[in-house]
Amino acid sequence: MVKAEIYQALGLSDSEYLKVEELMGREPSPTELAMFSVEWSEHCGYPRSRKWLKLFPQTGKYPSLVGEDSGGFILDDLAIIFKMESHNHPSQVEPKQGAATGVGGIIRDIFTAGARPIASLDSLRFGPPTEAYSNFLLKGVVEGIAFYGNCLGVPTVGGEVYFDESYSGNCLVNAMSIGIAPKNKIARARAQGTGNAIMYVGSSTGRDGIGGCSILASQEFCEKEEKRPTVQIGDPFTEKCLIEATLEMLATDYVVGIKDMGAAGLTCSSAEMAAAGGVGMEIDLDKVPRREEGMEPWEVMMSESQERMLVCVQKGKEAEITRIFEKWDLHGVLIGRVTEDKMVRVKDKGKVVAEIKSEFLANAPLYDMPAEKPDYLKEINDLDLQQLPVPDDYPAVLLKLLASPTIASKEWVYEQYDHMVQTNSVVLPGSDAAVLRLKGTGKGIAATSDCNGRYCFLNPYRGAQIAVAEAARNLVCSGADPAAVTDCLNFGNPEKPDRFWYFKHCVQGIADACKTFGLAVVSGNVSFYNESPKGPIYPTPTIGMIGVLNDLNKRCTQYFKNEGDVIVLLGETKEELGGSEYLKVIHNRVAGEAPALDLEKEKALQQLVYDAIQQELVNSAHDCAEGGLAVALAESCVSNKEQIIGAQIIDLQALNPGIRKDAILFGETQSRIVISCDPAALVKIRTSAKKFGIVCSEIGRVGGQRFNIANLIDLPIETVSESWRNGLTRYVK
Amino acid sequence: MKFGVVVFPGSNCDQDCFYAVNDLLKQPVEYIWHKTTKLDQFEAIILPGGFSYGDYLRTGAIARFSPIMEAVIKYARSGGLVIGICNGFQILLEAGLLPGAMLRNTSLHFICKYVELKVENTATPFTSEYKPGQRVRIPIAHNEGNYYIDAKGLRSLKDNQQIVFRYTANPNGSIDDIAGIVNQEGNVLGMMPHPERSSEKDLGSSDGYLVFTSMLKWLKQKSIKP
User: Fold this and answer.
1) Residue A617 domain-assigned?
2) Is residue A564 part of a domain?
3) Which of A40, A55, A70 lies at the terminal end of a domain, its last residue?
4) Alpha-carbon distance A462 to A482, whole Å?
5) Stated pTM of the model
């Protein structure tokens, strides 16, 4: 038997080791043991989460594609492929390279499906920027995303950045990428056809990133540990060449299957391609291009060196493939063949160093994890509004909220990203969702990512539903019809029952909300063990969502545009302050219940706004999110820096006469959208709202140079703008 | 009029330039792989933006040694139209077809945003469709756009009217707010802002399109002349 400290160092438990022995019927070789350890890690094999992920709907209102590595949906003749993935722990250890390789990895998942990557989004969460290490992480992560994405020529068009102490010891970096391909040109991640070639393409193999998935991604952070050697190093120039060479190769029709060597490198790509195709493969490590000498076979199999892929190529076409990769100064070498016997056989210096049935590797054990609602939640959910003082200076509260880094302008972030390359960005970052045109079709897609971890902490089922609802709402506000979902589920240690309880409920919430909206979950990623000695992160199931604009001309932005336009609030305002940014920033509390959500009402509101935009009745639309109505109004006034415009809100109390003023202004009641329209369009909007059963309140007018809310707040619009613009910048300049 | 768009490994605005010429200007255009050495069949050459060779050593420093560059230098010296955009401008500087050098932006960050430019010289093949002094909105996207030239060089640029575009609010520290310059003969333009990203209303501005229509106009006039 292999010594316990060896398999434990690789991240395997005692029971997992015994299971390996049982399956193999003998003691595994070091290379075999290493291969099991990475393939059975949570990052690759999803042993703890798989059971629950089956709840997600795989079909929706658009024809969906759920592939091995990524998924998407069909729009006319195009496949829109997208996926989100975490790179949290690498970024916490080495922010620039961690984030950069996160971007590189997700983009590889897109072009290995045969799709040209057309955009990326990044959903980021850090501790407060006043903390030195969180501030360092913020700067490093943004630099890393810019370093990699800009060089590739894939625009970074959107995302989100949240700040909260819960992420202080474990930041979140969730990268999402979108690609398009002709629908009949989608590549599969499988090997087939005995005798077909297994080729290694891209960059060479070194010792970087060994154990990235099994050790770094599948354990929580402890104090005084050195994990930097497990972080990979990114080379965006090589990846750019790899994109072009891969797409050139896939255009030849000689490719049977292709898979990125991402997490667990050559082990994962060989085992999973073989298992997916129901075949075996024999590979010869002596043929693998190296950047370091003296690497052991297990090191080669576990290396997570970046910018590499494994391709199954029709027998006899190897030279064609090599020629394409050599044109781009990349490796394209034959390392093995597809076999009939379903074994993954690895040879090194003429000797077999591993011989495992591919399905043993690809089918990680399945665990039923205990889940238990934490006792502490009851106390936290209990928020007595009677005890909460009403502010005496509303303008000061508004300015403080606008300057809260979570709400404040993210211009400092997105200006560092090339968000225009490929010339498809028709709505630039800074509105509710990014809108990209699909050249030559007159159509477009909108993309967003959303999740309020605080809501999920207070009520995981509803918080997750709100994440889905808000993402859809953001798309609708940009004029798009929500089409499909990807997710990145970030949670603490799943072996702790309270953490797992959160996971389970969030998954159920996402599944139920997606079913209501008719959205398929086409791809996704699970990231556990997001905790440090400071505790777990808030449960953060980030939702990435794409919507369709059938007529690109009918797109909408959140900015007020015309003097004299009427401002209308669609949706009802309730007395809800639980989990709000107001409660956190002004009262320094995270408490209460997450805002209520009625999915049917939400759907009706979205249909109402979508229709109104299609009928060109609406000049702007912005959803009420963090900071509530007052912040949504302020953002509508100031977020287009080329046209800052005031607003006069006349009637506030009419929204709900019975409730606290701070709840009206800053409460985060869901299912509300602020629109502006020509006064002449109001009658039609009212009629339509009535039909959908949505409360429609005319609350004021666009115009002037002041921001006035019923005289409770009356500020020069410049003051409002500056507070929002400098909120984050003041910590990073 | 046949345009050529040079593709270096790591170019990433090549397809955008191709699209601007092919789909908007509706002129024939071809990609030119950087290992090519002949340019006879082209009437204008575009060196696109991006990160040639990853810009790992210094922007444009490696691309300048690509086989194509000897041909580009010959082409330019014989009066052919050459425009370098962003990384293309940096390559033209490294190749010595334009004077000066690029430093990192003073913010030490990559900057991507719309900026306002003032058209300083409309008597070039690239700007004849603009009005003198016209203010235009064209986006920038670069890490090293902080143009530098010594005092003598700057004087010479001014004396010969070689400064074609200036920023109205300097985003990167560029000397004398310079955003684009031509060579003494006027047939080689380098500019940091991206005209191909602002050639259609859908993208927020079509001000950049006039760079392409100016080139076409100049080429047509040249072909009429005996």
Assistant:
1) yes
2) yes
3) A40
4) 20
5) 0.95
Q: Is residue A428 part of a domain?
A: no
Whose tokens are 């791809």? That residue is: A523
Q: What is the DSSP letter of A212?
A: I
Burial class (CB in 10 A: 0-12, 13-18, 19+), A512: middle
Active site residue A87: yes
Give tens-digit pLDDT for A317-356.
999 999 999 999 999 999 999 999 999 999 999 999 999 9
* Residue B56 near chain A (CB below 8 Å): yes
Which tokens sit at A577? 């302050």
Task: Find out whether A330 and A240 touch, Cβ atoms under 8 Å.
Answer: no
Q: Which residues partner with A74 through β-bridges?
A: A79
Domain interval for residue B153: 3-224
A10, pLDDT greater than 90: no
Give residues 94 to 113 of B whose Cβ lies within 8 Å of A.
Answer: 109-113
Residue A429 lies in a domain: no
| pLDDT given at position A555 | 97
CA–CA separation, A553 and A444 (whole Å): 9
Do A240 and B54 count as a contact with CB atoms less than 8 A apart?
Answer: yes
Average pLDDT for residues A149-156, to the nearest whole number?
Answer: 97
- The residue of chain B nearest to residue A153, with distances taken between CA atoms, is B12
Catalytic residue among A43, A89, A331, A419: A43
* Under 8 Å between Cβ of A489 and A49: yes
Q: Inform me whether the C-beta atom of residue B15 falls under 8 Å from chain A C-beta atoms.
A: yes
Q: Which residues of B touch A442 (CB under 8 A)?
A: none
A240 chain-B contacts, CB cut-off 8 A: 9-10, 12, 51, 54
**Quick one: tokens of A466?**
């709100």
A255 pLDDT higher than 80: yes
Q: Is A236 on the interface with B (CB under 8 A)?
A: yes
What's the confidence (pLDDT) of residue A285? Answer: 94
Domains contained in chain B, number: 1
Last residue of a domain, one of A362, A386, A408: A362
The number of folded domains in chain A is: 3
- For residue A608, the domain's CATH number is 3.90.650.10
Nearest to B203 among A153, A416, A423 (CB): A423
B141 and A235 within 8 Å at the Cβ level: the answer is no
- φ, ψ at A414 (rounded to 5°): -75, -15
Give A662's DSSP letter.
H
Mean pLDDT of A543-560: 97
Could you report the per-residue pLDDT of A266-279, keeping only the tens digit for each? 988 999 999 999 99
Neighbours of A368 (CB within 10 A): 7
Interchain proximity B12–A417, CB inside 8 Å: no
Residue A358: give the domain boundaries.
188-362
pLDDT at A8 over 80: yes
User: Mean per-residue pLDDT for A162-177?
Assistant: 97
Residue with tokens 């075949």: A279
Q: Chain B contact for A233, CB < 8 A?
A: no
Residue A211's pLDDT is what? 64
- Does A152 contact B at CB distance below 8 Å? yes
CA gap B218, B226 in Å, rounded: 14
Are A421 and B53 in contact (CB < 8 Å)? no
Chain A residues near residue B15 by CB distance under 8 angstroms: 422
Convert the pLDDT of each residue in B29-84 to its tens digit. Answer: 999 999 999 999 999 999 999 999 998 888 989 998 999 999 999 999 999 999 99
Q: Which residue of A has its CA nearest to B18?
A: A422
CATH of the domain at B97: 3.40.50.880
Output the pLDDT for position A651. 78
Chain B neighbors of A146, CB-CB under 8 A: 109-110
Three-state secondary structure readout of A67-135: CCCCEEEEECCEEEEEEEEECHHHHHHCHHHHHHHHHHHHHHHHHCCCCEEEEEEEEEEECCCCCHHHH
